[in-house]
Amino acid sequence: MDGLLIIDKPAGLTSHDVVARVRRVLKIKRVGHTGTLDPFATGVLVVLIGRATRLAQFLSNAEKEYEAVIRFGYATDTGDLTGQRLETQGAQNISQGVVPTFGEREIEAALESLRGEIEQVPPMYSAKKVEGRKLYDLARRGVAVERQAVKVTIHELEALRLDGAMLKKNEDGTCDLSIRVVCSAGTYIRTLGEAIGERLGRPAHLAALRRTRAGSFKLEDGITLDELEERAEGAQAFLISTDEALRELPFMHLTADEVRATLNGVAFVLRDEAAWPEDQPVRMRNRDGQLVAIGFYDAARRVLRPRVVLFPENKN
């Protein structure tokens, strides 16, 4: 069993929990994923099965899309609803029943200031490693370390209207803003939510997060873990093939001799002129259309070098 599963991750599970459950349900050891979702977050988690685990490098940096709820009124130490409330001036105002208010023009100005390329400092409560140690492990021990800002790109950022209004007021004095974000891989939506709060002069944290797309994989492509368990014997029907998973990459069909060379890791000169750039990844298919390997193009020599071989046996 080789391919991809698009899992609609429920809240309360880590990405590792999802991988472990898929491994148990399908009775297969080689299972991985292409991008971590926080336990409280839901939505698209791309799970790799069997030899498809070798494709992570081609999928992990894909663009992501999210819907999120930012709650204004107080910040938390994790940047989301799972953390401890921080007693800032804004939080004190909330305790006194003062509802934070701002207009739609202020909201749009805050969002506009964060569109495009921006810098983010990875939060302490994240899986990012510093000197080989995961930041959240250090944070849980009360250790804070210096983190370098990284550049990310916010391609789209918009407020979502619910029942015609941008802001939803809550009984506890907080108010919520729902947003849609399309961003580069590595973007922290919690940090983005805090930044929106800073632009509006209000402490804020993330109250909900749902990933609606990872690369070309959308929620409608996915199944829940419960559905997977119910239909485990027919799980093959849910799998996206390794070739389809990389459908955005160019491809070429190999002759029988080229397949044999590829399976042995041997590069070969292309038969036809290629217009690919240097180091372009290329799907290498056999005559049956099966994905045999991923090669990288050497433009100077017009050579395709297999780098990730998916089938150790000759499928021709």
Question: What report would you give on this structure?
Answer:
With 316 residues, this protein is of the alpha+beta class. It has 3 domains: 88 residues, Pseudouridine synthase (2-Layer Sandwich); 149 residues, Pseudouridine synthase; 61 residues, Archaeosine Trna-guanine Transglycosylase, Chain: A, domain 4 (Roll). It has 9 helices and 17 strands. Strands 1, 2, 3, 4, 5, 8, 9, 10, 11 and 12 form a 10-stranded mixed beta sheet that branches. A 5-stranded mixed beta sheet has the order 13-15-16-17-14. Strands 6-7 form a two-stranded antiparallel ribbon. The longest helix has 12 residues.
Summarize this entry quickly.
The chain has 316 residues and is α+β, with helices and mostly antiparallel strands. 21% of the residues lie in helices and 31% in strands.
CATH class of the largest domain: Alpha Beta
> How much strand content do the residues show?
25-35%
Q: Give the uncertain stretches in residue-range form.
A: none
Radius of gyration: 23 Å
Given the structure, what is the number of helices? 9
> Rough shape?
elongated
CATH architecture assignment name of the largest domain: 2-Layer Sandwich
Distance between the termini: 19 Å
Number of domains: 3
Give the proportion of residues in helices: 10-25%
CATH superfamily of the largest domain: Pseudouridine synthase
The CATH topology of the largest domain is given as Pseudouridine synthase
Computed structural class:
alpha+beta
Count all strands and give the number.
17
- Most strands sheet: 10 strands, mixed
Mean of all residue-level pLDDT scores: 89
N-to-C series of helices and strands: EHEEHEHHEEEHEEEHEEHHEHEEEE
